[in-house]
Amino acid sequence: MAPPAEPDPAAERMRLGDADRDRYAETLGRHYVDGRLDAEELGRRVEALYRATFADEAEALVADLGTPAAAPPAPTGWRRRRRRHGEAEQPRAGWRPHSRVVPIPSVRWSPPSRT
Q1: Which residue ranges make up each domain of the chain?
Q2: How far apart are CA 21 and CA 60, in angstroms?
Q3: pLDDT at 107
Q4: CB of 20 within 8 A of CB of 54?
Q5: How distant, in Å, are the alpha carbons of 16, 20, 32, 80, 107 from that of 53?
């Protein structure tokens, strides 16, 4: 009887999709922002990432970096809008908007006549 065949390691490997590559690239970018990578190393790793075919190849590119710092939480809840110039907190009693209407002159443009 023949010995059992070993499983093909390539058959068990997961292929990378575009979204997976984008996630790894974002992770590398966060490590760059945190100062764990310089611009040259980031460029090399991103280039290798987009050449990678399988997930374990991409994982090897970020394995030595650890976990990136957590992104700051997204703002939640209602924030008070700052007043713009001329806006009051509360309307004053007796205040009315300016009632005088100033006409805006309009000019019609016509192409020059050909002679």
Answers
A1: 23-65
A2: 13
A3: 76
A4: no
A5: 6, 11, 23, 49, 64
